[in-house]
Amino acid sequence: MTERTAGPDPDIAALADPARLRSLTETGLDATPDEAFDRFARLVSDLLDVPVALVSLVTETRQFFPGAVGLPEPWAARRQTPLSHSFCQHVIDTEIPLVLPDARLYPRVRDNLAVPELGVVAYAGMPLTDLDGRVLGSLCAIDSKPRAWTKAQLRTLADLAAACSSELRLRIALDAAEAARRLVEQAHERLNLLASLSEELTGTLDVETAVGRLADAVVPRLADWAMVTLIDQGGAPRWVTAVHRDPARAADITRFGEVALRRLGPASVTRTVLRTGQPVLRGVADLDEVRRASDAPELVDLAERLGFASHLTVPVPAPGRGTVMGAVTLVNGPGRRAFDDDDLGTALEIGRRAGQAVGNGWIHGEQRHVAEVLQHSMLPQLPQSPWVELAARYQPAADRVEVGGDWYDAFVQPDGDLVAAIGDVAGHDIEAAATMGQLRNLVRGNAFGRDDPVEELMRRLDATISGLRIPTAATAVLARLRPVPGGVAVTWCNAGHPAPLLVTADGTVRLLDGRWEPLLGLTRPTPRTGARVLLAPGDTLLLYTDGLVERRDQSIDEGMAQLCARVAAAGTRPAADLCDLLLSTGHRREDDVALLALRAR
User: Fold this and answer.
1) Staple 88 to which of 40, 45, 138, 562, CB 3.0 to 4.6 Å?
2) To which H or E segment does residue 441 belong?
3) pLDDT tens per residue across span 404-423
4) Can you state the angle between helices 207-218 and 341-378, rounded to 10 degrees?
5) 3-state class of 326 per DSSP?
6) What is the three-state SS of 239-260?
7) Preceding amide of 279 cis, omega within 30
8) What distance in Å separates the CA atoms of residue 143 and residue 52, rounded to the nearest whole number?
9) Where in the numbering of this chain does the GAF domain appear (predicted)?
10) Helix axes 297-306, 250-263, angle to 10 degrees
11) Measuring CA to CA, which residue among 217, 215, 212, 209 is closest to residue 189?
C-alpha cells in the first residue's frame, strides 16, 4: 500500500484559514481516541447501518479522527491520513453536505486515494462547525459499495452532526475558559510579583541588597535564571549579580556573571540595552547568540549548562533623568515556555521599579557619605596623655543619612588636668548637628582654663544655654580627670545622660552612682551636683550615648544589662578594642552612638 502526502489544495483556500485552524487547535483534539466522538461514530454506524463512520477534523495538511468506527489498518491505529486520502476537505470547501452514492463516478474525488486504500465508495459527510460557522470537518458515513442514501438517513446524519458540532463548540469554549483562567492567574501572579518586589525593594536603601532581592524575586517565579547589571558613570558595566533557580548551578551562575561583567562585547544584548535604553525580547534563542556576544568560549559552555532557550533584557532607568543605570536579563531554559509580550511588559515594570530602588540607594549612599564626612569633621581629635589612655568612636544609625546630635570631647587644661565630655542633642537633622557643635564649643569655652568643680561648669553651661536662648534639649556628662597618688581622680556631673560605666582592672563592671539631674535646656538653670571616683591603674571609665543601649524591642534595663555583660566579657583588652567590640553587634542600630573610653595607666 503506497502512502502519499499532500499540502494544502490551492483551490481550497479555507483549509489554511488562520481563524479556522485556531478553532481546531482550541478543541484540544488530535489523532487520539475521544470517547464522546467515538460515541458519535458508533451512533452513525448503527443508525445508518454503515461499516465505517468518522468524526473527521481537517487541518491544512491532514485529517484526523477523534471519533472513528470501522477504519481498516493501518489507519485505524494512526487515526489520521494525509489530504490525499480526504473527502472531508471538500466539505470544508463547499460548506455544505457532500453526498456521493458512488465516489468512483465523480471526477472531483474518483482519483482520491481514499477510494482504493480506505475502501470509500459511498460517502455522506455533514459539516461540523464552530460558533462562527467555520467548517472544521465533517461527520461522515462510509460504505465500501455503492449506496442510495435515503432522506431519513441524511436527516439522521445531519441531526447527529449538529450535536457533534455542539460538542466541538463546548470544547472550544472550555479551552477559551481555561485560557482565560490561565491569563487571570498569570496576571494575578504578576501583580503579586510586582507587589512583593516593591515591598522588598522599599525595605532597603542599600543598592547591593536591593539588587539581590530583585534577582531572588523574579527567579523562579518569572524566569529560570536572571542577571542584573549596573553601570558606572562612564556607562560601562561595573557590577553584576546573577541567580539560578537550581542551587546546584550556584557556582555556574556566579561564574557567568563574573565573565559577563568583563567579556561581553558591544554587540551583546546587555550592552545594546544599556546603550540604547530599548528592551530586547528573544522568544527563541540559541547558543550562537552567546558566541556572538562575547569572545569568551567559557560563557557559551556556562549558558548551555544553565539553560538558554528564550530571554529578554530590559533597561533599569534612572528616575526622572532619562538615562539608563543598568539592565535586567531574564532567561528560560528549554524546559520552560518562551517569553512573550506579556512577560516583556512585566519585566519593563520590574526594571522601572528597580530603577527607583537603585536610584534611591545611590542618592542615599551619596547623602550618607556627605553626612558622615560632616559628622566626623565635627568630632575632635583626642589629646595624648601620659597617664590616661583615650579611645573614642562614633557610629551613625543604620539606613539614615541625617547628621546626628551625638558628640564627645576631651581636652587638656593648662594645669594638665583632662576634661572629658559626652552628650546627645535631641533630633537627627542639620539643626541638631549645628546645636551639637555649639554645645561642644560652649563646653570648651566655659571649661578651658578654669579650675571650677565640674558641677559648677555644668551649671554655667545650663545658664549659658538659657541666656543665649539656644533652642535645644540635650543630655551630657562632664568629667575632670587629675592624676593623684594611686591612680586618677575623676569628678563628674550628669545632666540627664546614661550613667558612666566603671570597668576595673580585674574585669568588674558597675554603673557609677550619681545624682541623675534634669536635661540641659529644659528648665531654668538649677544647682548641679558632682560625684567622685578613683581610677586605679588599668581601670576604665566608659562614657556613651543612649544609642548603645536603647532598642525598640527591649527595655532600657535589658539594654544596660547586656552592655555590662559585653564589657565584662571583653576582659582587659585595650580601650580602642573595647570600643570596637561594643559597636560590633549583630542588630542594626536605631540611633547614633558615641563612645569615649578613658583608661588609667
Assistant:
1) 138
2) helix 430-447
3) 678 899 999 999 999 999 99
4) 160
5) strand
6) EEEEEECCHHHHHHHHHHHHHH
7) no
8) 6
9) 32-178, 206-368
10) 140
11) 217
- Going by C-alpha positions, the residue among 219, 255, 180, 256 that lies closest to residue 26 is 180
**Beta bridge partner(s), residue 479:** 420, 492
What Cα–Cα distance (Å) separates residue 483 from each residue in 61, 304, 392?
A: 105, 74, 21
Alpha helices in 122-247 (DSSP H): 151-202, 207-218
pTM score > 0.70 for this model?
no
Residue 213, C-alpha cell as written in the block? 532581592
- b/e for 71-99, b at 16 or more Cβ within 10 A? beeebeeebbbebbbbbbbbbbbeeebbe
Cβ atoms of residues 371 and 401 within 8 Å: yes
Residue 517: all three cell numbers together: 539631674
3-state secondary structure 484-543: ECCEEEEEEEEECCCCCEEECCCCCEEECCCCCECCECCCCCCCCCCEEEEECCCCEEEE
pLDDT at 372: 62
What distance, in Å, lies between the first and last C-alpha atoms of the chain?
A: 110
For residue 360, what pLDDT is reported? 66
Q: What is the CA angle 555-558-564, rounded to 5?
A: 145
Which residue pairs from 551-555 have beta carbons closer than 8 angstroms and sit at least 24 positions apart in sequence? Answer: 551/587, 551/590, 552/590
Spatial distance between the Cα atoms of 492 and 596, rounded to a whole number of angstroms? 14
- Amino acid, res. 514: G
Top pLDDT among 137 and 211 is at: 137
Q: Pick from 400, 561, 551, 390: which is nearest to 479 by CA?
A: 390
CA distance 127 to 234: 67
One-letter identity of residue 112: N
pLDDT band at residue 77 using 50, 70 and 90 as cut-offs: very high
166: cell is 455542539
Cell of 477: 556628662
Q: What is the pLDDT of residues 450-474, one digit of tens each?
A: 999 999 999 988 888 888 888 778 8
For residues 464 and 468, give the distance between their C-alpha atoms in angstroms, rounded to a whole number. 6
